[in-house]
Design goal:
This protein is of the alpha/beta class and 397 residues long. It folds into 3 domains: 50 residues, 2-Layer Sandwich (Alpha-Beta Plaits); 189 residues, Rossmann fold (3-Layer(aba) Sandwich), CATH 3.40.50; 126 residues, 3-Layer(aba) Sandwich (Rossmann fold). Helix content is 24%, strand content 25%. The longest helix has 17 residues. About 2% of the residues have low confidence.
Length: 397
């Protein structure tokens, strides 16, 4: 945390500047709490120089033993069969390029009951090595079991970087591993690059208003979760087969504290699948009320798609945060994206501009969304959507 020096005069200027609410005045002096992130924005603004950053860690660690870029492979059940979640293949494609810059290998890590069926696909997307942990006890995702297995693998093989999908599973697993390994974790990255031998992890910050570049020069492995659909996936080694490294990792006894009794999952319209949906119907401020989102839900249901929302709609409480499409929400790349009553702020455009076909409905003919739409309809979304819904229903008969 920021250090408060005795010469503080209690002017309160630092309190108003702090973006995290970590500073307050107590008994006429500045006081810092655990919300401090050491961003340092308050230090240069103190008129009496009473704020001080803690001394930087001066110990130079030998990190030469850490090599290779790892990608945690997430498996999902699709109509009774396990498949590799596309974001894992996106990460392998990107990881291969990063590893090439570092002069290292890109490796896939797969944990499950029967992994052999996925080796060829992982190899075709560039994996040089595949670390496989197989056991019937790993058939269903369990935080304790998977985290324990990953920690043992990381401790044994010492990768330089480990990337996870920014999905419900990845967001649950990665922080647990980071805590046990005493390393940092950058969440929801939208970009990865290499600079001076370190991975530069780029993510939205301050509500998506800026992009932050984060590095971890003194600790290994460097770890991040990466959003789906922000990186292309590409078959780079068709027909080749990676080196398979089978590891036997007994399931942690602590994992037995949690048992999955039953799993229920809706079709693609559920928010878990928003990043993989081929059709997305999104609503924005132009819908005016939460109740008017019902027609968005109905249209998405008829088309077999998912429901998205703009940041304005989420901030208004019309849809949950998990539905938000945009820089500070979910990045999507469907075949069809219908923007209903969405003006097209840059924050939203960044999250859906790579959709194959974009249809925009907005009563403002000058709305920025029309610059990205293949088809545009100028008019009141509340009058147009019911007619669209009825027409779609008729074609379904």
């Amino acid at each position: 945390m920021i250090k408060i020096l005795p010469n503080c005069i209690g002017c309160g200027k630092c309190v108003s500047i702090c973006p995290f609410g970590a500073l307050s005045l107590v008994n006429g002096k500045a006081n810092v709490n655990s919300a401090c992130t050491l961003c340092g924005s308050c230090v240069p603004n103190c008129p009496v120089k009473a704020l001080q950053m803690p001394p930087k860690e001066e110990e130079v660690k030998d990190l030469s033993a850490y090599k290779d870029v790892w990608v945690f492979v997430e498996l999902v059940n699709a109509k009774g069969a396990l498949k590799i979640r596309p974001v894992s293949l996106e990460l392998l494609t990107k990881g291969r390029k990063l590893a090439a810059e570092l002069g290292q290998n890109v490796c896939a890590v797969i944990i499950g009951a029967d992994n052999g069926a996925h080796f060829a696909e992982l190899s075709s997307y560039g994996a040089s090595k595949i670390y496989s942990v197989q056991d019937p006890a790993y058939a269903q995702y369990n935080t304790e079991a998977y985290a324990s297995a990953m920690v043992k693998l990381i401790s044994k093989y010492k990768p330089a970087a480990v990337f996870y999908p920014s999905t419900y599973t990845g967001r649950d697993l990665a922080p647990r591993i980071a805590a046990e390994m005493f390393v940092g974790l950058t969440a929801d990255c939208t970009g990865l690059s290499v600079k001076n031998g370190n991975i530069v992890q780029t993510r939205p910050a301050f509500g998506g208003n800026i992009m932050a570049d984060i590095i971890c020069p003194n600790h290994r492995p460097q770890m991040a979760t990466v959003r789906p659909n922000v990186m292309p996936k590409e078959i780079t080694a068709q027909g080749s087969m990676a080196q398979i490294i089978e590891e036997v990792v007994p399931v942690s006894p602590a994992a037995s504290k949690v048992r999955v009794l039953k799993t229920e999952k809706d079709e693609v319209g559920e928010v878990e699948q928003l990043d993989e949906a081929q059709v997305i119907i999104s609503g924005g401020r132009g819908l005016k009320t939460k109740e008017n989102f019902e027609i968005i839900n109905n249209l998405a249901c008829v088309l077999g798609g998912a429901v998205g929302a703009s940041r304005a709609a989420v901030d208004a409480g019309w849809k949950a945060k998990e539905h938000q499409v945009g820089q500070s929400g979910v990045t999507v790349k469907p075949k069809l994206y219908v923007a209903c009553g969405i003006s097209g702020a840059l924050q939203h455009i960044v999250g859906m501009q790579d959709s194959d076909i974009i249809i925009a409905i907005n009563k403002d003919a000058n709305a920025p969304i029309f610059n990205y739409a293949k088809y545009g309809i100028v008019g009141d979304v509340q009058q147009i959507l019911p007619k669209v819904l009825e027409a779609v229903k008729q074609t379904k008969k």
